[in-house]
Amino acid sequence: MNDALDSIRSFLNCETPDAWVQAALKHQDVMLVDHAHCEQKAAATAMALIYRYPDRAELLTKMARLAREELIHFEQVLTILAKRNIEFRHIGAARYASGLRRHVRTSEPYRLVDVMIIGAFVEARSCERFAKIAPHLDEELGAFYTSLLKSEARHYQHYLKLAREYATGPIEDRIAFFAEKEAELVLSEDEQFRFHSGVPAAQYQAA
Prior knowledge:
Blueprint: H1 2-11, H2 18-26, H3 28-52, H4 57-83, H5 95-101, H6 110-133, H7 139-147, H8 149-166, H9 172-187, E1 189-190, E2 199-200, H10 202-206
Parallel strand pairs: 1-2
Helix pairs in contact: 1-6, 3-4, 4-8, 5-9, 6-8, 6-9
C-alpha cells in the first residue's frame, strides 16, 4: 500500500492542506454526508460510462466492478451515519468535479480520455485524503478510511490505464494540464467545506 500511496502522491501536484484536515475534524458530520454523496456519484459516473461506451469492453468490465464497490462503500458510510445519528441529507456539491470537467474536450476520443484522466485524479485525491485524515480520527472511522485506501488506489490505476489505452498518442501533457487545474482547486480558498473542497473559508476553520 505504501508503494501505491507514493505513486498517488507523485501523480498529484500538491498535498491536501492542513487547513482542510482541521476543518474536516471540526465538521465530521459534513465530511461523512458528503463522502456518502461522493460514493453515490462515483457509482453513477461508472454506470453512465457503461451506457455511453458500450463498445469498450475493458471499460465495461472495470466500470461495472467500480460501480459495485462504490455502492458498497456508499452503504458502509450510510451505516456509519446511522450509528452516529447523522442524517443523510442533500448538500450542495463541491466545485471540485465541475471545476475539472469544464476543461473536458468535446470530440471523441479526446472526451473519453479527459474523463478517464479526471477520474484518476478524483480517485487519487480521495485516497490521499483518506490517508491524510485517518490517523486523526476515532478508531472506528480511522480504520474504515484506512480500509478504503486499497480500492481507491486501484480505481485510480484503472482510470489512468483506460486513459492511456483509448488515447491516440501520449497523454502526459494532458495529465500535467489536469494536475495543475486540480492543484489550483485544492490549494485555493473555498467558500464551502466538502470532502474534495479546497482550503475552507474562515468560518469553517474557526467554528
